[in-house]
Amino acid sequence: MRWRCRRAPVGPVRPGAARSALVTPPRPEPPPVRRSAGRLAELHALDVLPEPSFTAIVALAAFACGAPITLVNLINATGQHFKGRYGTAAPGMDLRIAFCPHAICGRSLLEVPDAPADPRFRDDPLVSGEPYVRLYAGVPVLSHDHALGTVRVMDHRPRRLSDAQRQALATLANDAAGLLQLHHYAARTDQALVRLRRIDAVKNQSLRTVNHELLTPLASIRSSVQLVRDGDLDAATQERFLESNTIAPRAVTTCGRVSQVVRHVLSVHRPGIGWGAGPLPRARPSAGRQ
């Protein structure tokens, strides 16, 4: 199903026209939230509500526009969620309540100077009851061309924003979009660091295994071959291994070479050292061929 945004026509009412002519136009159908909801899920933007880092945005909006209520609200299929809030303790509201469905149909500021005088909003619960909104101004928060929500201000008295206030609100909406993206990048970085720590733990365990399973037998083999080479055996055993004396020096050299390589690998990958511990020692041709 494809959602369509419909804006109700707004025009002057002829003097003397019947009150019934001011029939409140239907509220716009739910905005195209499917792709925006997917983008919010990618950003994990609704994981923490409200989020302290967005408090600065709503505080600046309240100061710049002189408004008692300011919000950074994000929209998905389940409703409006307040990422940052000033002047209210509500966590959010229904998708079809208030002005935001109208605001995100566009790509720029929606300003309503006097809500009771606008047939689109005069029967809205926020207008006819608490907090008795008169001024509404909201700018969409855009990410990858998706309207994720708005930065909006509301006031109890009818008025218009100045050009400087409109520009400030637009800038804060851009800042909110950028902050969502930065939080997403930070979360991805944290996840990558966790994965790297796990990989590093596996690597260190592998190196400990190499040290125990390879170097220890090599040391034993080297000691045994040295006994044969040096003749530190009884006569019968020495006679038995006499023919091995020609290969004993090469065996000792080979064991030493393998031990040196393994120690080099261990030193290169030792925690806190990493790559760059020096080149591998070159094997001599005679040892390399054995």
Automatic annotation (TrEMBL):
Entry keyword Membrane: yes
Cellular localization per UniProt: Cell membrane
Residues covered by region (Disordered): 1-36
UniProt GO MF annotations: phosphorelay sensor kinase activity
Membrane-spanning segments: 54-75
Keywords: Membrane, Transmembrane, Transmembrane helix
InterPro entries membership: GAF, GAF-like_dom_sf, HisK_dim/P_dom, HisK_dim/P_sf
Catalytic reaction list: ATP + protein L-histidine = ADP + protein N-phospho-L-histidine
PANTHER family linked to this entry: GAF DOMAIN-CONTAINING PROTEIN, SLR1143 PROTEIN
Protein name (database record): histidine kinase
